[in-house]
Protein: Rap1a immunity protein domain-containing protein
Organism: Allosphingosinicella deserti
Amino acid sequence: MKTIIAAFLFAGSQTAAAAESPCMTRTEFNDMSLFVLPALLDGAAAKCQAYLPANAYLLTGGRTFASRLKVQSDARAEEAIAGFVKIGGSKLPEGVSGATLGSFIRDMARSEPFKKIGAGECATIDEASELLAPLPPENLANLVRLLITQSTKKDKNPPFRFCPTEAM
């Protein structure tokens, strides 16, 4: 998710993006997470198909997991896209529709994070997908937010920030 947000801020440095972007609430971040998670699972399955056995969870049950999350993704699309617009601000091209922007974000989620992964990472992604699948979507979004928050605490210039009342 951090990679997707950073890539989404296409223009300028991450330093400028973080300093200029408004803060995000937990709800906004959760909406954005649930919006991209099905695309992330689809992208992982596509990238890892060559490295995983045919019976790997990501290639079998992972499709069902992604479909289940897609319902939440579609339900939160408008709010998620508004969140991406909020953090993208003036870096976004003018006149781009929400539908076009949503498609672009999902396409990035399917490809961007997987450009440099190999067999070892695919095995980890497969295992993580299977472990996370039983979680309700809201819990999954909260877990993603928690992990991202913890992993960026020491970043001097994170690609986004949480509102002070929302910080962990």
The chain is about 65% helix and 0% strand. Confidence is low (pLDDT under 50) at residues 6-18.
